[in-house]
Amino acid sequence: MSHKIFAFIFIVFSFQKSYTQTSILGFSAEAAVQQQSLEAAFDQLLSPSNLDTWMKLMSAEPHYVGTDYGRKNAEWMRDQFQSWGYDAKIETYQVLFPYPKVRLLELTAPQKYTAKLAAIPVTGDPDTNQGEALLPSYNAFSTDGDVEAELVFVNYGIPEDYEQLEKLGIDVKGKIVIAKYYGSWRGIKPKLAAEKGAIGCIIYSDPKDDGYYAGDVYPKGAFKNATGVQRGSVMDMPLYPGDVLTPGYGATKNAKRLDRKDAPTITKIPVLPISYEDAVPLLAALEGQVAPNAWKGALPITYHIGPGPAKVHLKLTFDWQLKPAHNVIATLKGSEFPDQWIIRGNHHDAWVHGASDPVSGMVALLEEARVVGALAKTGKNPKRTIIYCAWDAEEPGLIGSTEWVEDHMTELQQKTVAYINTDGNGRGYLGVGGSHTLQAMVAEVAKEVKDPQKNVSVAARVGALDLLNGGTGSPGLYALGSGSDYTPFIQHAGISALNIGFGGENEGGEYHTIYDTYAHYKRFKDPEMAYGVALAQTAGRIVLRLANSEVLPFEYTQWEETVKGYVAEVIKLAEEMRKAVVIHNQLVEKNVFALTADPTKPFKQPTKKAMIPYLDFSSLQNAMTHLETTITALDQKDFNSVKEKEALNAQLMLSEQALMNKEGLPRRPWYRHQIYAPGFYTGYGVKTLPGVREAIEQENWEECQQQIILLSQTIKSFDKHLQMIFEFK
């Protein structure tokens, strides 16, 4: 599900060559030597040829939810895990998965055009020529619908675009909107369109974003050709991910299910993705105002907004059935602490072949697990239990992982140290997001893994990139929003989590299309599977260090510095919004907007905005100040000398849960984490301190003050938990 073009914040630690560390966080000097020897042996056993062979096998046929090939892949992986020494099984959930029955899009005025809604096979890639086996292009969890109306172009269909439309005096009520992919997660586009009164939504990929404007198109180059269409879920995941009919509990065979009409995460209006070949006649038929320059794409037309005279007819019906989602769960029991779990996951389902998304990450996980199992057979067993997971039904809405977490919630919260996620993988730079308590440990690992292309550590390489972009050479983890299987672990269960991958030099337009194939991946992504091995090295080291550390490698100073920055951001946001309102109202009073408006174009006179009150952040600021004192003391404590290590570790692994509020966020109680959450109108994109930040953005001042108090209480609870950790002797 995570977009595989790595346009995210990279994690780096210092600009330096790879070197052997003299110490490892959480290990005594003697134990560190043993761990480094283990990791060196781990590296020697990794084989890129396995990744290549397995990718070709797993991506040979479409394997979306409920397919026979998806089941076969799951059974094959289970058997592999068992042969490597794991106790492996398949846990199956019955989940709602809509399959498209009718897809009709017609331009009915001022001329006629019927969208083809089909991607062309390409020479040299037989996987693109599998006919009816290929999943049709659609957006999962669009509602059924049969609508006809004038068309309006809304750019990316995000809040800022609708603000612009309002300034231009354009209303989408009763209209069908057409929006570009990108700018936000796709599900936000029909969600916001429906809130604005639209009755239908079309999403297309503009060549400026990932077609011929960006580079040569497939098969000559990696980018999206004229007929390529990005599939994807439009489930309202900012409310909750997972099976739409079983919110908050596992979708077992006999689970109580909502009536489909009552499921809040299904869209309110029909939505359909199309190619830029099909988009051209629709957009070319629009008239009205010319779109702002920032809205214009790369199609050979003048971009008009409308509404009309273009009129379109959109008809969609789906086969709404329960389908089996097969999770593979493989357990290697710990030799000393079997009830402390390190969980490592990647999904195995795909929209079509899914060579890049997700198989490239899945085969790296498999190779990592194979080698960990091989080492265990030689007596080098992990001290803690390691559980490898291959999730099903991630693509339609993180369903497989969410149902498993909801089904096993109590035990997971009691036993899980951390969850380590990967999704797809490519060539380039290391990117890591997650719980900032794990940042120091990940920094150490990144200095130990060598970049396959540059012969320096992956930390050094991405450090150079950060310096080139004006950074310090040492940024931290990016905060997790949503978009992959870490979501239920960290944001619902309060389990520390990481999301890991390489990318930045593997751009293309294959994402969620029929062109995400083995042939495409081998030409444009990671031809030698070298970065697949680097991913296995990175994630494998993290897993092994968490599994074998004497003291769990959680570190709180960098967490405190990061969260203190988030607090400063929300205070600054409120102040900047207040100043902006003052300036806006002054301009209205002086009639500046009217005097500067082009008299030949439509104009809507802005009105004065309500003044923004001063908010009281003192409780939050005081809580953070006290927490800083606690963490400073904690940082100076030598935990390797603590005798009660088992009890200490039991509390360290529970620290993330102290950042949860059982009531959850306003209007979406499934999300309980008070530091990280996907934005209500960003989807994948993170909102840090979400309760406070989104209340400010939505100008809900009463709620904002309440959320400040709640966040302060959360910080105090976290502080109390760390004080208890400090007391261990």
Summed up, what is this model?
It is globular, with a radius of gyration of 26 Å. Helices cover 36% and strands 17% of the residues.
Number of strands: 16
Mean pLDDT, all residues: 95
The secondary structure category is: alpha/beta
The proportion of residues forming helix, as a percent range, comes to 25-40%
Distance between the termini: 45 Å
Tell me what the structure shows.
Helix 4 (159-167) links the parallel strand 4 and strand 5 (176-180). 54% of the residues are buried. Strands 1, 2, 4, 5, 6, 8, 9, 10, 11, 12, 13 and 14 form a twelve-stranded mixed sheet that branches. A two-stranded parallel sheet has the order 3-7. The chain folds into three domains: 47-96 and 322-548, 3-Layer(aba) Sandwich (Aminopeptidase); 99-319, 3-Layer(bba) Sandwich (Glucose Oxidase, domain 1), CATH 3.50.30; 557-726, Transcription Elongation Factor S-II, Chain A. It has 729 residues and is of the alpha/beta class. The chain is built from 21 helices and 16 strands. Helix 20 packs antiparallel against helix 21 (701-726).
Features:
about 35% helix; Transcription Elongation Factor S-II, Chain A; Glucose Oxidase, domain 1; twelve-stranded mixed beta sheet; 3 domains; alpha/beta; about 725 residues; disordered N terminus; globular; Aminopeptidase; two-stranded parallel sheet
Helix-strand blueprint:
Blueprint lengths: L28 H17 L2 H11 L9 H16 L3 E23 L3 E2 L24 E2 L4 E9 L5 H9 L8 E5 L7 H8 L4 E5 L2 H4 L21 E2 L37 E4 L1 H9 L26 E22 L4 E11 L7 H23 L6 E8 L7 H9 L1 H7 E7 L5 E7 L4 H8 L11 H11 L18 H6 L4 E8 L13 H7 L5 H19 L8 H33 L2 H5 L21 H18 L9 H8 L23 E3 L7 E3 L1 H8 L3 H26 L3
Parallel strand pairs: 3-7, 4-5, 5-6, 6-8, 10-11, 10-12, 12-14
Antiparallel strand pairs: 1-2, 1-9, 4-9, 9-11, 13-14, 15-16
